[in-house]
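Re: the request from the purification team.
They wanted to know what the chain is likely to look like in 3D before they choose a buffer screen. I agreed to run a prediction and write the result into the notebook, where they can find it.
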Amino acid sequence: MNYNTVYVGMDVHKESFTFCAYTIDAEKSSHFQRTEADYKNVLRYLEFLRTVYGNDANFICGYEAGCLGYTLYHQLTEHHVNCVILAPTTMLEQRSKKRIKTDKRDAEIIAKCLAQHNYSPVHIPTAADEETKEFLRMRDDHKLALKKVKQQILAFCLRHKLLLMQIKPMNA
């Protein structure tokens, strides 16, 4: 069976990843898998899906923005995997009425949102954006350090009454 596009929902956490495949043709999720948190397990899962859906299948992977930030995104795109980070507040998939939240359900919802385009992607900063952010952080750190040193100097002067003394001329 050959499919054009397979949407892979990934519920990612610090310790584990849960995967789910979804195709528009079948309109159902399948091939659920839970693994340790490592991008190499995503690559292995995609290779497994290739045996199921064929070598010409196109995979679009996605996960909700969260604790992993852009790390997983960069690791996957370096291996030529089409990856999207979904903004959780924009996902339009109706959560089931059941209040029980599971990783499997979350992976399925992410896969469906990818397939139905019911989400807004998170902006992935460019290298220039990252450099600017680092520069601004460094600048803020130095401004705080300068403020602290000024306060220490003023406190030292105050303790030694250097600010209260006036310099008298020598010939007075």
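For the purification team: The CA atoms of residues 50 and 172 lie 95 Å apart.
Please add any questions underneath this entry.
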